[in-house]
Amino acid sequence: MAAEKLTIASRDILLVVDIQNDFCSGGSLAVPHGEEVVPLINRLARQFEHVVLTQDWHPSDHLSFASSHPGMKPYETIEVSYGSQVLWPEHCVQGTLGAEFRRDLNIPHAELILRKGYHRNIDSYSAFYENDRTTPTGLGGYLRERGFQRIFMAGLAFDFCVRYSAEDAKREGFDVTIVEDACRGIDVDGSVADTRQTICRLGIQRILAQDVTAQPC
Q1: Distance (Å, rounded) from C-alpha 168 to C-alpha 138?
Q2: Cα-based angle 102, 116, 201 (whole degrees, multiple of 5)
Q3: DSSP tally for the chain: helices H, then strands E
Q4: Nearest CA among 4, 2, 16 for reference residue 151
Q5: pLDDT tens-digit series, residues 86-104
Q6: Is 211 an active-site residue?
Q7: Active site residue 183
Q8: Dmax of the chain from CA atoms?
Q9: pLDDT for 78-88, tens place per residue?
């Protein structure tokens, strides 16, 4: 993990991934200690002029739900048209309390809320592409059109939606830094360790929130 401090520039943006009720304690797909990142992300976001929030937003019969496949259980895996798919408990269903952002998430200056996972037959971990890796969300074009070059990422879960978003952002040509203490992981079959190895191989930087500093006025 990087030890040097990174100073936020005017063309940097913070991407806050899926800080929603269902991914926190008491939610249907709770990331262990997920809610602990909220105060840190709030403080981090105040240093950024530009922030984007993502929001998982599934129909009630989404392909990724174990309940959509009779006889299957959460965390089992099936093969679909785009490869392997982990089956999840129902979560972040459109219009439900579980899909709402945490009430203590306080980033009023966020400029965009990007909803993902609303296509019934494709899961969506990444903020940039659906899991078929060909269907874009439009975020890459939005960021390029606005001239952003470096993306800082934080949120839930480190080993799924943050990881896939970081990988795709890197492939799209952005400079990517993950603020790791502002993330929490699910850790399915060693997925946290695998995530660290993969992002290191791709040249994606990991840093602590205390080492991100605002540009002096």
Answers
A1: 12
A2: 95
A3: 4, 10
A4: 16
A5: 999 999 999 999 999 999 9
A6: no
A7: no
A8: 59
A9: 999 999 999 99
Distances (CA, A) of 191 to 109, 172, 188: 33, 23, 5
CB atoms under 10 Å from CB of 55, counted, come to 21
What span, in angstroms and rounded, lies between the C-alpha atoms of 109 and 101? 15
* Strand-pair partners of 101: 20
For the chain, give the number of residues.
217
Strand partners, 13: 151
- Cβ-contact 92, 64 below 8 angstroms: no
| Matching residue, tokens 């439009």 | 138
Give the Cα separation of 31 and 81 in Å (integer): 27
Quote the pLDDT of residue 91: 98
Q: Which of 12, 24, 56, 116 is catalytic?
A: 116
| Burial of 74: CB neighbours in 10 Å, binned 0-12, 13-18, 19+ | middle
**Residue 2 clears pLDDT 60, i.e. is over it:** no
Average pLDDT, the chain: 94
Structure tokens at 23: 């991914």
pTM of the model as a whole = 0.95
CB neighbours of residue 102 within 10 Å = 18
Q: Which of 92, 123, 159, 161 is catalytic?
A: 161
Residue 92: active-site member: no
